[in-house]
């Protein structure tokens, strides 16, 4: 079984493409099931956030697995694999491990070091586990990725530079509003994780009065109570827009919530000398309709715009330290994985030896029926002891060699020499007692 990571992010695709690829929570289980029903895909995890859509998969072959995943992506986006090709990146085996560890540590985020991706990765893993699309290989990979992310934030200062996407977006908003958000009335549309982070950040920056609206009113009320904000029915969206300076839009809606018509009506009720209405669109698919940015008196900051502003910005001071942590953790995981890969071959070799011993003892019983039960037992113990001693050193050595780069050749050599038939399953499926290095549970 091989590891494959295929995806698109703010680095490789515009928001329009990410919108096409985005998997809504209501569709996650169906899409995961669709992936693992493909011929070459055995396990799958989907990460779908405001600036990335990725599939981590255990596959039986590179080309077949890639084709299967691209086919599901194309189906999701309503297009063809060829049309997506220029926007997708592909990482295989060691590179896939490196990628998911870098994602977990925040090194691949739009804002280097932001910690929100760690929670998003955890949610994606738990969702896939609940849908029963993760086996031991992805269980171990995702658990290790989460541990690497925690270690990166605990052992370095990357959090200091790694503000959330919300913080960065609000920083851009402040530039449009005379440099400060304190005392500015604000509205959060959406009461999910991103909406909650938006409300918390606005509160910390002194913005207010604050209001939150959401399709599910109960959730909006609970979130508002936590920050002394007002909870408004979604039906009052237009009126609310006319009374605020900042809007953080972060819903899971599949269609724009802030349409040109809604925003136009709000602007008409807004004093002409009030200044710009700044809309932060942090949702994928977008919450702000494309034509809204053309309206006078409106500033729209979306993922595309943030990516352009942040491109080439200074990396976090501790990014190099985190990179070293990731490099070491990747090698540690690969060492464990290579060692696990040889386990089925060693088990098959010992099984072959047991079969040979059993056959010879059976023949001995036929040739020497005069032997007592005690004598037969002693002969059996002696033969088994000889075989185990003969196999001990070679099997210990092959495990050591397999843990080194290129070590898979030794398992292949054993299979060839002894004509061993080893099932083509994920190596970790056959060794449930193995704990990877430093593994948390």
Offer a few descriptive terms.
single chain, alpha/beta, Beta Polymerase, domain 2, 3 domains, six-stranded parallel sheet, four-stranded antiparallel sheet, 54% helix
Helices and strands in order, then pairings?
Layout: E1 2-9, H1 15-21, H2 25-36, E2 41-48, E3 52-59, H3 62-77, H4 81-84, E4 89-92, H5 94-105, H6 116-130, H7 136-155, H8 158-161, H9 165-176, E5 186-189, H10 193-204, E6 210-213, H11 217-227, E7 230-232, H12 237-241, E8 246-249, H13 260-268, E9 277-281, E10 298-302, H14 303-310, H15 319-367, H16 373-402, H17 408-417
Parallel strand pairs: 5-6, 5-8, 6-7, 8-9, 9-10
Antiparallel strand pairs: 1-3, 1-4, 2-3
Helix pairs in contact: 1-3, 5-7, 5-15, 6-7, 7-15, 15-16, 15-17
Structure commentary:
The chain has 441 residues and is α/β, with parallel strands linked by helices. It folds into 3 domains: 2-162, Beta Polymerase, domain 2; 165-310, 3-Layer(aba) Sandwich (Rossmann fold), CATH 3.40.50.720; 345-422. It has 17 helices and 10 strands. The chain has helices at 15-21, 25-36, 62-77, 81-84, 94-105, 116-130, 136-155, 158-161, 165-176, 193-204, 217-227, 237-241, 260-268, 303-310, 319-367, 373-402, 408-417, and strands at residues 2-9, 41-48, 52-59, 89-92, 186-189, 210-213, 230-232, 246-249, 277-281, 298-302. The strands form 2 sheets. The chain has a 6-stranded parallel β-sheet with strand order 7-6-5-8-9-10. The protein has a 4-stranded antiparallel β-sheet with strand order 2-3-1-4, sandwiched between helices. Helix 1 packs across helix 3 (62-77). The longest helix has 49 residues, at 319-367. It is elongated, with a radius of gyration of 28 Å. The protein starts with a strand and ends in a 24-residue tail after the last helix. The model is unreliable at 312-316 and 425-441 (pLDDT under 50).
